[in-house]
Amino acid sequence: MKIYYTLLLSGALSFLSPLATNAVNWIPATSRSEIKIDTDSIRYDKNIATMNFLFPTNKHFVVSKLEFDSNAQMWCILQNGVINENGEISFPKGSENAQVHKNKITQGTEGYVLYQRYVAAPVPDISSMVWSPIKEGNTQYLINKKDLTYKDGYADFWLYAQNNSPTTERAYTIYHVKMNIAYSRLKTLSATTYSNDHHIVAHLLGTPRWEAIPQDTLLHEIFLSIKKDVDQGILK
User: Fold this and answer.
1) Quick one: CATH architecture of 2-15+124-231?
2) CA distance 158 to 146
3) For residue range 18-76, what is the model confidence (pLDDT) as tens digits?
4) Is 9 exposed, middle or buried (0-12, 13-18, 19+ CB in 10 A)?
5) Which of 44, 75, 86, 137 is the most buried (most CB within 10 A)?
6) Which residues of 10-42 are buried (b: 16+ CB within 10 A; e: fewer)?
């Protein structure tokens, strides 16, 4: 959590611009895997998530479109595709699996790891977010108030922070944060780092541990603002 605090509490803001569409953006799916994911292919629709992966074999790479069902806790390969020399993928007509074999999302398997990383902790949809300064006059960090939720004493929101010494490859990070308002504690659910052209370069899971919200920080400003809205009945 301390590394997240360091990034959250320092840096300067760089406003977002519209995302490019129909792009391909391959990154390592996990830090310990040769599997790659096209983050621009990720789609969420209620309990169904689909995304394209690049799986290494002995002689070449196989491109597959995977589907995850969070309600049924199952995953399957919907289609197998091809990749050209530019890294672009296509799914030829008839490449759909005639008989889709569904697999249980079981702990300790690669399917479970991918599910935890990209479905249980989804990547942010920055094109739909509305960003606001956390504190008037301070434009270093932004919070997406439009999608802020409060339920059973917990606030859930997305936070934008420009990275320390931002580069073209690693310009800013968006954090998915959960706060316990009654006990003034928080945990980071995920951290997604973007390049200057707004493509994902890393999507990391947060920590399961709850941490105390440090005093005299922007995180504490957020906590006080949410608590005020809760106390006044604005958030219920």
Assistant:
1) Beta Barrel (2.40)
2) 10
3) 333 346 899 999 877 789 999 999 999 999 999 999 988 776 778 899 999 999 999 99
4) middle
5) 75
6) ebebeebeeeeeeeebbeebbeebebbbbbbbb
- Locate the domains of the chain by residue range: 2-15+124-231, 26-120
DSSP H helices in the chain: 2-8, 110-115, 218-231
- Considering the entire predicted model, what is its pTM? 0.83
pLDDT at 129 over 60: yes
Tokens of 196: 């200057």
The structural architecture, per CATH, of the domain 26-120 is Beta Barrel (2.40)
pLDDT number for residue 95: 61
* Closest C-alpha to 67, from 44, 89, 48: 48
